[in-house]
Write a structure and sequence with these properties.
Length: 264
């Protein structure tokens, strides 16, 4: 939870290679995760110098290494989001800077450098490296544009079944888990996650941003759903509460919201 609070998008890095032993640790973590999800996802780590290349359109400064989020045939976007955020939070715990990239990178350049096959879909990327505390001008202006330091209020995101605000007093540990959803990252900081508590159960819904990311060839807000699931689940696990997100049959319909999953 403390690490979820600590994470922010880092777009300016010290121009310094990650120390070997730390890099090895990260590689092992990624390999283990890939083993658990064979034929679903890949998380390649590459060293790449983008000098003279378009790469990240100048969004990222100083990073020499990147991790990809690759969707394979057996996987899905929500789970990819869940696992990629798990990786991001792990890296944050090691004081490594990261930045979710879903749109602003040249897929072809990274695809080649990662030596991927045609049916391996490189959807996500994060630079990794040591954090340069002094942000570049571009980074500063991106934060202002995306209103990155702002989040919607609790009562704009979390509801009871009549779509009235939830009573905080009844929630206990779940209050914290919801707060961790609220402070999470999302594509262009659109914060499309909504939780509706129905008959004592927490249900995750997607409130789509109209006409958003139409030029992308995948449903990026589904990735945001996985991030919300990870923040909720890992916070509860820390409090010793076990559970899982599952899709139920015949979920409750709400206008303008798309059902994703139920915490069971
Ligand atoms: C799925 C996803 C895709 C994103 N894609 C980009 C991107 O392409 N370029 C970028 O600069 N930031 C990207 N971001 C970062 C968000 O803009 C950022 O998380 C949000 O503004 C909140 O700021 P914070 O991460 O510092 O809390 C992405 C975030 C997510 C979750």
């Amino acid at each position: 939870m403390e690490i979820i609070k600590k994470r922010r998008s880092v777009r300016t890095f010290e121009d310094k290679k990650i120390e070997n032993s730390l890099r090895e640790k990260i590689e092992n973590y990624l390999t283990d995760l890939e083993k658990d999800y064979t034929s679903k996802y890949k998380f390649p780590l590459i060293d790449i110098s983008l000098e003279g290349k378009v790469g990240t359109y100048g969004v990222i400064k100083g990073a020499n290494s990147y991790i990809g989020g690759v969707l394979l045939e057996g996987g899905n976007l929500v789970e990819l989001g869940y696992l990629f955020e798990k990786i991001i939070i792990y890296l944050t715990s090691l004081d490594i800077g990261t930045c979710w990239l879903g749109g602003t990178f040249k897929r072809g350049e990274f695809f080649e450098a990662m030596d991927l096959k045609d049916d391996e879909n490189l959807l996500l990327l994060t630079p990794i490296g040591y954090i340069e505390e002094k942000m570049s001008l571009k980074e500063k202006s991106m934060r202002v544009l995306a209103k990155s330091d702002r989040r919607k209020e609790f009562d704009e995101l979390f509801f009871d079944e009549n779509l009235d605000p939830l009573y905080l007093d009844d929630l206990k540990e779940f209050n914290l888990a919801l707060e961790m959803i609220r402070i999470g990252p999302s594509a262009s900081n659109k914060q499309p996650w909504r939780i509706i508590k129905i008959n004592g159960q927490f249900n995750l819904y997607l409130k789509r941003t109209k006409d958003y990311a139409k030029n992308l060839d995948y449903d990026i807000q589904m990735i945001d759903m996985g991030i919300a699931q990870y923040h909720f689940q890992s916070t509860l696990e820390e409090k010793g509460i076990q559970g899982a997100w599952e899709r139920v049959e015949n979920p409750r319909d709400y206008e303008g919201l798309e059902y994703i999953s139920t915490w069971i």
